[in-house]
Amino acid sequence: MVGIFIIGIIMLAAAVAVIVVRQPVHSALALVGVTLGLAMIYLILQAEFLAVAQVIVYAGAIMVLFLFVVTLLTAGKEETETKDLLSGQRWASVITGLVVGVGLAVVIATHHPTKLATSLSSSFGGLHPIGQELWGPYFLLLAGVALMLLTGAIGVLVLNRTEGTKAPRSRPLPHGVSVSDGEGESRP
Amino acid sequence: MISVQYVVALAVLLFMIGAIGVLVRKNPLIMFMSAEMMWNAAALAFIAFARNYHDMSGQVMAFLIIGTAAAEVGIGLAIIVAVYHRRHRLDIDEVSKLKG
Amino acid sequence: MGYLIPEVLLAGGALLALLAVAMLPNAKNLGSWIVLLAMLAAGVDAASMWGVTAKLIMSDTMAIDKYSILVTEFVLLAGASSLLLAWNADRFGAELPPLMAISVLGMMTLGTAANLMVVFVGIELLSLPLYILAASTRTRAGGEAALKYLLLGAFSSGILLFGMALLYGATSSLTFVVYPAITAANTWLLWSGLGLVLVGIAFKLAIVPFHMWVPDVYEGSPTPVTHLMAFGTKVGAAIILLRLLAFGFYGQDGSWGTLIGYLAVLTMIVGNLLAVPQLNLKRLLGYSGIGHAGFLLVGIATHSVDGANAMMFYLLPYGLAAMAVFGVLRLIEGQGDEVTLSDLRGMAYRRPWLAAVLIVGMLSFAGIPLTGGFVGKFFLLQAALFASQPGLAVGIVVGTLVGLFAYLRPLQMLFQRTEVSAKVQHLRWSVAGAVVLGVAVVGTIGIGVYPAPLVHIVSQSANFYWLTGG
Amino acid sequence: MLWIFLLGIPLVGAFVTLAVSNGVAKVTAEVIAGIEVLAFIAFLVGPRATLDLSWIPAWGIRFHLTADGLALFLLGLTAVMSLVAIFASKADYGRTYFFWVLFLEFASMGLFGAVDLFLFYVFWELVLIPVFFLLTGWSGARGRLAALKWLIMNLFGSLFMLIGVVAVAVIYQQNTGHFSFEIASLTHLAISPAAQPWIFGSFALAFAIKAPLWPFHGWMPDAYGEAPPPITSLVAGVLSKAGVFGFLRVMLPIFAPELARYQTGLLIWVAVGLVYGAFMAVRQRDMKMVTAYASLSHLSMIALGIFSLTAAGIVGATFLMVAHGLMVGGLFLILGVVEERIGHREFNGVMGLNQGAPRLATYFLFFALAALGLPGLPGFAGEYMIIQGLVAHEVVFAGIAGFVLVVAAWYMLRLFQGIMQGRPNAPAVADLSRGQVAWLVPMALLIVVIGVWPAGITSQAVPSLFHAVHFVADRGGKN
Amino acid sequence: MQGLTEILLLPLFGAVTIGAFKSLAPKRYAGIWASVLLVASFVLAVLADVHLAELAAGHRVISGTLFNWATGFGPKIAWNIYLDPLSGIWLLVITGVGALIHIYSNGYMHDDPDRGRFFGYLNFFIFSMLLLVLAGNLLVLLIGWGLVGLASYLLIGFWYQRPSAVQAAKKAFVMNTIGDVAILIGLALLYFRFHTVTYAGLFSTFAHATPNTAYFEWTAVLLFIGAMAKSAQFPLNGWLVDAMEGPTPVSALIHAATMVTAGVYLMARLYPLLRLAPDVAYAIAAIGAFTAIYAASSAFFQQDIKKVLAYSTLSQLGYMFLALGVGAYTAGVFHFMTHAFFKACLFLAAGSVIHALGGEQDLNQMGGLYKKMPWTTASFLAATLAISGIPPFAGFYSKEAILGQVFNSGHGLLWIVGVITAGMTSFYMFRLFLLTFFGAPRNKKLYDHAHEAPAVMTVPVVILGILAVIGGFFGSWLNGWLAPVFRMYPGASHAALEAGPVFGTVITVGLAVLAFFIAYWLYVLKRTAAKAGISTWPGKWMLAAYGVDTGWRNVAILPIQVVGTWFRDRIDQGILAAVVGVANGIWLWAEDLRPVQSGYVRRYGLSIMVGLGVILAYCLTRV
User: What is residue A183's predicted lDDT score, i.e. its pLDDT?
Assistant: First the structure.
């Protein structure tokens, strides 16, 4: 219980950091913190498999990708954000965000979920039950996610192909690294 | 026993911060990260409720979210790279030729 | 599982096409042919299921009923027409057919969704290929469109997901078809969850004020992709909204109906209004799509079987008209990506048949009799009035009137006598384009002249209220 | 089955015309329109077929057309005027032009024949489209604007009427449990008092805009002014009847009690339009506008007859519709010839065209006299019957109508004399060609015949107007 | 129907054939053809009347129905043809005088290039006029009524190059339309009440009607307005004088002998209605008397030979209405007949003069013509004596019949007016006669070229002159001839001719003779110029007919023009602007909204967020 509070506070701090720090790299690092915090909460909530998945996928793959792109794109460019030229955007965003957030918080605070009397099985959230679900009734959804990942792969391929390359060659999957020449500005 | 409300409240705050982040930051990467944060907040809420209801489907949902996020990030970053690799600044407001 | 053969066929087709593209890079149109055949097969298979009694499959996560079959057919039509519009054009890339197939698969999934997970997966499956496709020509506008679509899509998906989480919290179930049975309580949690989910879906459906990505993305994307967005995405988003509200929340009388009603009127008027001053034809169609989303919402807002049928009905004429207009657009644009109103000058004299197709499509959008658009609007009006909601009817009328300005201006350009635009002069027909236009025109006029079969089919399929025993 | 020919000939013919080359398009269209006239004659002498097919069974919509006395002569008017308009068109307008004209003929035929409310509405909107394109593609400098005004203003009314159409059917369904759009079955509806004025108003608005009746004539000056003369004559001669026809076809059966309730208001409204149109016509400098506003006034006259809710007034209105179509259609064609000869539409004092073009002057005078209601010509007969009806209801309106007839003499003669008479101040213009006389003569003869023998039309109109007459009798109305 | 249809259709046939073939046949054939047809129909008319006379006195009606005119809204209205002694008189006069004038026109219009058109119109007029008098119901009458208006319009504006002729034609038509409309409403009222418009049907129901009700008064007023317009009774008189812009035979035929007496015919025809509306009958008499004296005084200072005659026509028509108003129907018809003779004669003679002077109509240019034109002078004199009421010329008898019955019926004031008018008539007619034919020639050049008209013109003039001399002797025959008509239905108590008091005759004739001497003294002895006195105030007023035209302009035309201008410039512009304004408003609104679509992703996101907030708020408040 206390753990959750502590982790939560740290996580919130990191989350705020994501959106306030000036350097994108710092943001990405803060987000790593958030995802790790989440993983810990998942653990507390008896979602062990997801905690592991969160660490591997988010902290391991996604955030690395982010950092990679951040460094790629910020290299040799101005790193900090200029002044916000959209008048009132910042204030309006914060206010509406707070309104929505507070509204939802009030909703949550007034909600009293029914607590189940039965105790949680020890295997809840483990690899086995989730696997049974995923490969059982939700198999198609899993397949769908797989298709999405495939799509992602194709997407990276398509989007950062050099001009004149009509069909996919045996190009390495790492995304958008070496193929960033000649495209993008080619609007007639 | 942990009250699910606190966890969901945490998720709400995370969601809120993510939403605000998308709207206030000009760097598309950070905006995208903020959006990921919103997804994560949702996943957190799912897991919390799954814990509350002793129902695995919430966790399955969270798993789907993580998996989908991975695919989405791949595509998203590719698009961002494609759009920004020639630009001087990572500024979303510069990408506003289409309007009206 | 047998009910999911169309989906499986399409997924298989996508994978096969991907493989073909990778293995045989020089075989022109091979991927397209594979996907097209898969789509045809899926369509035939889906049609063969017509007599099925409505049921839930896959642990109550998917609903197979006549609506799902109709949606399957509609989105396959959208997909096939988009594919044909991209036929023979190298600049969209060889991966376009499998990506489109995946997107269409997402739309089909939405048609069957009875569970929030399926909704989520379907929406993402629909969106991710479109993000890529929007940028696939790698023009500056395409990149901008893709980026805008992506960021806002991710943002709205976050909202959608959070709303689902709240719904899950309120009901302890992700299978929304059982909501009426398990919760009689109208809690704030339930309603705020619904609100957030509505926002997420409304984004995809392009409902004001969640519509703003639409014109930009439409304008920037390649035309076949825009067509898929305009037709397919709309079908998918509309059906999921209908499913969610009519399956999960039909017991909660009035409240959401009124909300959707307000949104419908707002959307109809704003969408059509903003279409008026547009000069870029695709952008105009984007706003027009927003306006039509408003019309679709009317059907849902009536909170009745009639309304649901009317919405279902409206999707087809809308899509056919979109096929006609995008098809003409595609022929005019040639190697370019942009068609402005002045590019249409003199077409009625130089390319009378093409002009005729454009006229039919635009008039269907405008809801003129003997086109499907009119019957659709008529159906919607009927539903609105049966539901004793004259405000919605007036909204339809005002929206249509405002939209007229937008639809008539391009038509007047066709009759510009003095100068003929260069694009029209250098226009070349293509067989694939002709097929799309032919289907579009025959369908539009056919539905307009003899709508009885479609009305019958749509009315027949309205048995989903009994699905849950509610 | 005759109906299939009546509708099919112009429709198929339109596409045939589109398929032939530009050079022979006009001849093709002439032949098709001629066949259509023959088909109408066959219709007139043969059995009055009705066509009644199931169309959209789910909503009780039927493809139901009849040619009762109300519609019969309007169908004839459409056939004749279309033929004349095609004759009067220039061959170099091209095949698309003739396609639209024939399509317009098809749509008008359907409109006047439809007795299913849905079908009526379909044709009601359909007639707008060809005119829109004709105005867009074949008219003067402001034609495009005129086209937009035409379509949008008309749809403004029509779409609200669509709500009314649907509402009526919905109410019927709620009353009886089954669907029907058959006008004849939609009578005696129990419309709630809250909805009733709105539904009534939606119909009235649409009809008033189409006619047009004051003050809904905003589209009229541009459309009449800019359109090519044959199209102006079709719009003013045939389509304008659709509005007042709607009052008879749709509103009289469905809204008889409401019409009676609002009668005084309606009468005052159209009486204002009557005077307004006449006064406007007196002060115009543009020759087409004189006729346009005269037409506005005439249509108010027709509406006045309808709203008198007497047998005489309604029969007179029916008759005047046909007569007015021929007269004003012919007048616009003549003015088109004049405009073509002199190159502008202004007429200023005296122009003395008579000097060089006596035949033109003769036909001009004939149509002008017909339009001003010279006794012996059909305008007079219609106006007499309308006044007869007004006398039975409220003699004040008869007085107003009479006053306007006097003003009509004034503005019509002002128009005729201003253009044709006086000392010539410009070089003489060419007279009518033989081709032009060839279509003017039959029109003039037709006008004379129905003027001398109105019974030919009115006797046919009676059975179809039986309901109206009956209704009037129910109210204890005097004749 | 005893040739009635043929009588009707012969002139129509003539008009159509002339119209159709005028460009093919030589020009002079048109006049001959028209005249031949008219003579033929005159013969037929005589035969028809003879046939009528052979019928029993109580059944002197020939009627028939051609075909239905309109049905469907009540009892049918048909093309009824109806000949009785009353219409028989008109029939004879129309065809007879008409034939003479047709013949005369062959000479008068000899040099006009548009002769064909002229005779076509003329024949058309005869057809219309015959239709008017042969009509068996009010509706057919009204059709004829309108068509004669048209013929009058066409003939007044015959010389369409003259702006004044064009204006005059329009004025005549519009003013006549006032009458048409009044009749139209009147007959609608009759049909509404009695479900018929045939004379026989109406009059038989009148017999049982209660007199003096508002319904009958109004109906009678409306029908009388129609008669006033056609017969140019004050205040609808303005057009008749302007109508002199037409060729002179037209003035003789239409604007003197026949058409303008259609009002007299209508009122005589409708005498049973006048019985039911005694107030209107008195008004008719009063207006007739007023018109008589008003027009007579207006004639005093006219400079134009035809205008004097026009005012005299007005004045004589006033007499006829005076007779009808007091119930002296036969006297009215008698005066119509004699008037047709002498006025046609006067006009044709004046036409000869104009013809001789090369188109000059100004009295100031005439004088002394008797030497050059003896036949014309003699005829003109006979007619002048007739119109002045000098015994034993025709006018004396008919005028005496009217004045006598006015006196007998007790309308003293009207009688005095009539008597004074008789004197005035004598004065201005002799002024005209003397200025034209006597005294020294005022324009030597014109005088030198003057010559007697050719025989084709002179013969009709002389025939009419003879009729003007002997026409008065038909009185007793006419009395008997018309008696069955006016006895058929109640209401014609004073219909038959009656003799007035002797002193009345003495005074009348005395005044006329006195007036002759005054005129002789002024214009022959003192050689006063024609234009003398026109600049003094009574002269100015009388010359302008007391400003009735100006009054019409101010009362009717200007207001309509002002209101019409206001409609055009304000209301209609407003309506058009409203249409454009709404469209522009939509356009501008859309343009104003476009910047909202700013292209900035974050703005779009904010829009989503705001929408989310609103929807959330909605959802939460609804629970």
Answer: 38
Residue C42 CA neighbour count, 13 Å, CB half: 34
pLDDT at res. C2: 80
Q: Which residues of E touch A91 (CB under 8 A)?
A: none
Instruction: Please tell me the predicted confidence (pLDDT) of residue A100.
Output: 93
So what's the ipTM on this one?
0.91
Contacts of A138 in chain C (CB under 8 A): 59, 61, 117
Residue D97 shares a structural domain with residue D212: yes
pLDDT, residue D356, reads: 82
Verify whether the Cβ–Cβ distance E73 to D355 is below 8 Å: no
Instruction: Give the span between the Cα atoms of D444 and B98, in whole angstroms.
Output: 62
Q: Is residue A132 part of a domain?
A: no
Please state whether beta strands E77-83 and E62-70 pair in parallel, antiparallel, or not at all (unpaired): antiparallel
- Same domain, yes or no: D290 and D231: no
Q: Which residues of E touch B31 (CB under 8 A)?
A: 601-602
Touching check for E622 and chain A: CB below 8 Å? no
Q: Is A105 on the interface with C (CB under 8 A)?
A: no
CA distance E40 to chain D (A): 25
Measure in Å the smallest separation between the Cα of A91 and chain E Cα atoms: 11
Asked whether residue A113 is domain-assigned, the answer is: no
**Nearest neighbour of C151 by CB, restricted to B35, B65, B97:** B35
Per DSSP, the residues of E2-40 read: TTHHHHHHHHHHHHHHHHHHTTTS-HHHHHHHHHHHHHH
The pLDDT assigned to B22 comes to: 93
Place of tokens 């007299």: E264
Question: What is the torsional sign of CA D340, D342, D344, D346?
Answer: negative
Distance CA E345, CA E322 (A): 23
Domain with E335, as residue range(s), is 161-550
- D420 with E160: CB under 8 angstroms? yes
Residues of C in contact with B97 (CB under 8 A): 140-141, 144
Q: What's the pLDDT at D465?
A: 63
Decide if A25 contacts B90 (C-beta within 8 A).
no
Q: Can you tell me whether residue E219 is helix, strand or coil?
A: helix
DSSP string covering D282-343: HT--BHHHHHHHHHHHHHHHHHHHHHTTSHHHHHHHHHHHHHHHHHHHHHHHHHHHHHHHHS
Q: Do B93 and E602 touch (CB under 8 A)?
A: yes
Q: Would you list the DSSP string of D210-239?
A: HTT-TT--TTHHHHHHHS-HHHHHHIIIII
pLDDT in tens, A34-76: 999 999 999 988 889 999 999 999 888 899 999 989 888 887 6
Q: Which of C151, C188, C210 sits opposite E601 (nearest CB)?
A: C151
Extract the residue ranges of chain E whose pLDDT is less than 70.
1-2
Residue at D313: amino acid letter:
G
Q: Report the percent of chain C where pLDDT is more than 90.
A: 63
Contact D/E (≥3 CB pairs under 8 Å): yes
- Please indicate whether chains E and B are in contact, defined as at least 3 beta carbon pairs under 8 Å: yes
The last residue of one of the domains, among E522, E550, E578, is E550
CB contact under 8 Å between E73 and D311, yes or no, is yes
For residues C136 and C222, is the Cβ–Cβ distance under 8 A? yes
Specify whether E237 is located in the same domain as E321. yes
Q: Are residues D307 and D196 in the same domain?
A: no
List, for residues E590-603, the tens digit of each pLDDT value: 999 898 888 899 99
Question: Cis peptide leading into C209, omega within 30 of 0?
Answer: yes
Cβ distance of C161 and B43 shorter than 8 Å: yes
For residue D6, give the H/E element and its range: helix D2-19
Per-residue confidence (pLDDT) for residue C469, from 0 to 100: 44
pLDDT exceeds 70 at position C322: yes
Q: Which of E517, E550, E583 is the last residue of a domain?
A: E550
Residue C400 pLDDT greater than 90, yes or no: yes
Best residue of C148, C205, C212 to probe chain E, by most E CBs closer than 10 Å: C212
